[in-house]
């Protein structure tokens, strides 16, 4: 069979019909994305371990996924390796690690005994986490950001929600009987955490540049962090229960501080509106 002649091109070859040329990418641009991929792997592995009844490893993997998902963006900024691709990867990892994985782990461990009510509670939490992340992305894309956004979150952030919703699992590890009554109470608690995620409650973020620490308190604070990590390694689930309780107790104080400064109990300035929904669906 004869090979056909290429078509005649009077103006030379048309490079526009070809795809984009491949080019070498610096390794520093790939490294943050690898952290994100590892976070997704950890979250999905946590789900598998939960279905295999290896609950302590499952919770550990979900917490590791949350940690990795929390540092990948910071690593990208430190390495000056931020990109639109990385931002999209991070958003996909967030819904897996902060929404789907914790919901399934707590469902398999405790909510399953509440039957349909437990599954509905897990669904509500996972959807609430997705809505919370979508609202955060919309607010982050705005060119003109309010001054309070560097100091407060609108509602409990998704990483904290993942830590909070696993409280029934922590309590189960401490010996509390995970019977049917425990499952119903855990279902109500799961819905409560979902409500905190999508609420307009002002939650202090601690990211404001104006927050400074007195020089004489630096070393005690560092010692306190070391003590917390040491206790976490030795008494993991007791410390996690204490951390969840401390976080929940701190929420009213953040709202009180907001009310003193802005005069409202919730954040009234719209974080997402009809125009945002229509533009981002």
Automatic annotation (TrEMBL):
NCBIfam families, per database record: pssA (TIGR00473)
GO molecular function: CDP-diacylglycerol-serine O-phosphatidyltransferase activity
Catalytic reaction equation(s): a CDP-1,2-diacyl-sn-glycerol + L-serine = a 1,2-diacyl-sn-glycero-3-phospho-L-serine + CMP + H(+)
GO cellular component: endomembrane system; membrane
Name under which the protein is recorded: CDP-diacylglycerol--serine O-phosphatidyltransferase
EC number(s) given by UniProt: 2.7.8.8
Database matches in InterPro entries: CDP-alcohol_PTase-I, CDP-diaglyc--ser_O-PTrfase, CDP-OH_P_trans, CDP-OH_P_trans_C, CDP-OH_PTrfase_TM_dom, CDP_ALCOHOL_P_TRANSF_CS
Keywords assigned: Lipid biosynthesis, Lipid metabolism, Membrane, Phospholipid biosynthesis, Phospholipid metabolism, Transferase, Transmembrane, Transmembrane helix
Family: Belongs to the CDP-alcohol phosphatidyltransferase class-I family.
PANTHER family for this protein: CDP-DIACYLGLYCEROL--GLYCEROL-3-PHOSPHATE 3-PHOSPHATIDYLTRANSFERASE-RELATED (PTHR14269), CDP-DIACYLGLYCEROL--SERINE O-PHOSPHATIDYLTRANSFERASE (PTHR14269:SF61)
Natural source organism: Rhizobium lentis
Matching Pfam families: CDP-OH_P_tran_2, CDP-OH_P_transf
Annotated membrane topology: Multi-pass membrane protein
Subcellular location as annotated: Endomembrane system
Domain of life: Bacteria
Main location: membrane
Chain ranges of the CDP-alcohol phosphatidyltransferase C-terminal domain: 217-252
Coiled-coil regions, chain positions: none
TM region(s), chain numbering: 29-51, 57-79, 91-110, 116-134, 154-176, 182-205, 217-233
Example GO BP: phospholipid biosynthetic process
């Amino acid at each position: 069979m004869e090979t056909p002649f290429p078509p005649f091109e009077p103006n030379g070859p048309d490079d526009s019909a070809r795809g984009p040329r491949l080019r070498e990418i610096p390794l520093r641009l790939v490294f943050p994305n690898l952290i994100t991929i590892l976070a997704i792997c950890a979250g999905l592995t946590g789900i598998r371990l939960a279905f295999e009844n290896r609950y302590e490893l499952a919770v550990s993997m979900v917490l590791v996924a949350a940690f990795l998902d929390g540092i990948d963006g910071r690593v990208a900024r430190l390495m000056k390796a931020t990109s639109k691709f990385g931002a999209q990867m991070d958003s996909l990892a967030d819904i897996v690690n902060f929404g789907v994985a914790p919901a399934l782990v707590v469902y398999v461990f405790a909510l399953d005994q509440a039957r349909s009510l437990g599954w509905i509670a897990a669904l509500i939490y996972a959807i609430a986490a997705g809505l919370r992340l979508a609202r955060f992305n919309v607010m982050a894309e705005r060119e003109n950001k309010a001054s309070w956004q560097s100091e407060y979150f609108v509602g409990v952030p998704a990483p904290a929600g993942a830590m909070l919703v696993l409280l029934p699992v922590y309590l189960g590890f401490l010996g509390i009987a995970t019977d049917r009554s425990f499952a119903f109470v855990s279902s109500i608690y799961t819905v409560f955490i979902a409500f905190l995620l999508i609420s307009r409650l002002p939650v202090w973020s601690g990211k404001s540049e104006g927050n400074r620490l007195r020089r004489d308190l630096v070393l005690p604070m560092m010692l306190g962090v070391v003590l917390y990590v040491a206790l976490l390694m030795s008494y993991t689930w007791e410390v996690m229960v204490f951390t969840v309780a401390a976080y929940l107790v701190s929420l009213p104080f953040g709202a009180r501080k907001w009310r003193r400064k802005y005069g409202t109990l919730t954040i009234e300035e719209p974080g997402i509106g009809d125009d945002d929904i229509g533009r981002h669906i």
